[in-house]
Amino acid sequence: YELHGTENIPEGPGLIVFYHGATPADYIYFMARLLIEKKRSCYAVADHFVFRLPGFKILLDAHGVMHGPKEECVSALKKGSLLAIAPGGVREALFSDKMYTIIWGNRKGFAQVAIDAKVPIIPMFTQNVREGVRTLGGIKILRTLYERIRLPIVPLYGGFPVKLRTFIGEPIPYEPNVTAEELTAKTKAALQALIEKHQKIPGNIFRALMERFQRQKKDD
Hints:
Elements (H helix, E strand, L loop, with lengths): L1 E3 L9 E5 L6 H14 L3 E4 L10 H7 L2 E2 L3 H9 L3 E4 L3 H7 L13 H9 L3 E7 L1 H4 E3 L4 H10 L6 E3 L6 E4 L11 H19 L6 H6 L10
Parallel strand pairs: 1-9, 2-5, 2-6, 3-4, 3-5
Antiparallel strand pairs: 6-9, 7-8
Helix pairs in contact: 3-5, 5-8
């Protein structure tokens, strides 16, 4: 695992917006590396269903994972913390694919949180994150079933030991006159730019595995 661009994380509060792979393993690696190298922690926003899993609530609370609401997120940022969120959430995790399509729908609440807290947004993307674990989200009936019951019933496969590199982009500064819609569009464009710069599309499991043996690190 490699982490690039930590200099783009502000000393104070900031909202980290990242692309959601089939699992959030890359975010866990990022959080651990941030704590080791920068001695900083980062709160995260997770889907509501995670908090209904038996025994998970205590673990999530210990790691600073919250399910919202907006007021709680704004409060954490105003206290000087970092907060991470993947606007695509479970839908992006299950139904995006090796083309790395961003699936946000009409979600813009994260942008309003950044505006209300007056903090910058920091885009983040992990190379090969979809090659480590794949989903069967291309099966239409599974998508239909998910939209009906809103539970992650899509099967996963993999656990391949691919090379993972997390890239942190330049912050999008707070602007008092920007709307949530405009800030959402800016953030999506910044994240898309990271994907296009650092990810070979379509993703390929064998290529991602071979990248573990590259002697030279990929340029930032």
